[in-house]
Amino acid sequence: MFEQIERVPGDAILGLIEAFNKDTNPQKVDLGVGVYRDARGNTPIMRAVKEAEALLLKNETTKSYIGSHGDPRYGEVTLPLVLGADSPVLAEKRASATQSPGGTGALRLAADFIKSKLPGKDIWVSDPTWPNHLGIFPAAGLTLHKYPYVDSDNRLDFDGMLGALKQIPQGDVVLLHACCHNPTGFDLTREQWQQVLEVVRERGLLPLIDFAYQGFGDGLEEDAYGARLMAENLDEVLITSSYSKNFGIYRERTGCFIAIAKNTEQMENVRSQMAIVARENYSNPPAHGSAIVCEILTSAELAAVWRDELTEMRDRINGLRRDFVEALKPHGLDGTFAHVAEQRGMFSYTGLKPDQVDRLRDEYGIYMVRSGRANVAGLSSENLPYVTEAIAAVSK
Ligand code: PLP
Ligand code: TYF
C-alpha cells in the first residue's frame, strides 16, 4: 500500500534549524525559526519558570487526567490576562477557556469547531500569514481565502486589507493576528483596529484572533488592544492564545482556545461542544505547561519576576530593531530598512528578496526565511556589524 506514498519536503522554517546546525561557518547567524534568543544566542528557561517547576516537583501529587477543558485554574488566569482583569466580558460571564496543546492546538480546535458547528463558513487569512494557518484550516475541511496585508513596497497595505474585508461574504470567519504579526511584524494601529471592527460588525463576520505573542510588542496590556476591542464590542469572538513565547515554554505545548458568546447560556453551549472537539482530537491536554503558568500567575512574587523577564525580552528586541537601522546608516541603507524599527514582535519582513536571502546564507552563513523574514531576536551587539555589512553587500 505504501508504495504509492510520495515523500514531501519538510517545513521550510523548521528546516532552517537543521541547515544552520550543519553550517561550519564560525560567524554564522540564525535569524530563522521564531524562538527568542538572548544576547548570547541562547533560548534559556525563564527564572520564574524554573522556580515554578521546582515547586511543582515538590508539591505535585498526581499525574491523573486533567479533563478535556484542562485545569480550571488555567482558564481563571488566562482569561483576565488576555481579556483584561476588569473586562466586562468576564463580568458578564460570556467567555470560556479550553486549555490546548499550544496555540497550534487551539487553532485546530477552532478549525474543527467552525467546520462541524458553523457549516458553510469559510476562513480568511492575511497574505502573508504564518504558514501553518494555510495547513491547519484546510486540513480541518475549511475553505481558506486570503486578504492582502503587505504591498509591493513592503509596507502594511491597510487600504487593501480593509477593502478586501468589506467584500467577505456575510458570516465568514476572519483570522486576525492580535499583535506581532507573523511573518511581517506589521501591526495595526488603534485607529485601524477600530476600522476593522466596523467592517467586521457590518458584515457580521466572526473574528478568530490568533494571539501568540502577548507581551512581545509594546506590553501585555498594549498588545491586547485589538483582541479586547473585538471582545468588548461584538457578541461573538474566538481567540487562540499561546504561552509558548511569553513564558518560553515552547515544547510544553501550552495554549488556550477562548470562545466569547452573546450570553452565558450560549457560551456554555459552545463550551460543551469544545469538550467534544478536544476529546475527538487528543482527549485531554498536556498538564505540565499549564501547571507552570498557574503556579506563576497565582503567585504575586513569581508573576512579578515573570513580568520583568518578559519586559527584558521585549526591550531587547525593540532595542535591536533600532540598533539595526542605526548600524545601516554608514551604508546609506537606514532609509531602506527604517520600517524594521516600526515593526513589532519577533519578526521583521525585511524586504530582502529571495536571491539576497540565498546569498546571505551561502556567502555569509546568515539564515532567514526566503520571504525575507528575519527573527530580530537572533541579532546581538556582537553579530550586528557582520549582519549589516553582509546586508549592505547583497543590497548593492
Ligand atoms: N500563531 C502564530 C502566528 C505563531 O507564530 C505561532 C508560533 O509558533 C503559533 C500561533 C502557535 O504557537 P505554539 O503552537 O507553539 O503555541
Ligand atoms: O514562525 C515561526 O518561526 C514560529 C515557530 O511549523 C514555528 O512560529 C515555525 C514553524 C512551525 C512551527 C513553529
From TrEMBL:
Record's keyword annotation contains Transferase: yes
Source taxon at top rank: Bacteria
Limits of the Aminotransferase class I/classII large domain: 27-391
InterPro entries: Aminotransferase_I/II_large, Asp_trans, PyrdxlP-dep_Trfase, PyrdxlP-dep_Trfase_major, PyrdxlP-dep_Trfase_small
UniProt KW Transferase keyword: yes
Annotated GO biological process: L-phenylalanine biosynthetic process from chorismate via phenylpyruvate
Any single Pfam family the record assigns to this protein: Aminotran_1_2
Cellular compartments per GO CC: cytosol
The protein's required cofactors: pyridoxal 5'-phosphate
Keywords: Aminotransferase, Pyridoxal phosphate, Transferase
Any GO MF annotation of the entry: pyridoxal phosphate binding
Quaternary state and interactors: Homodimer.
Homology family: Belongs to the class-I pyridoxal-phosphate-dependent aminotransferase family.
Protein name: Aromatic-amino-acid transaminase
Species this chain originates from: Modicisalibacter ilicicola DSM 19980
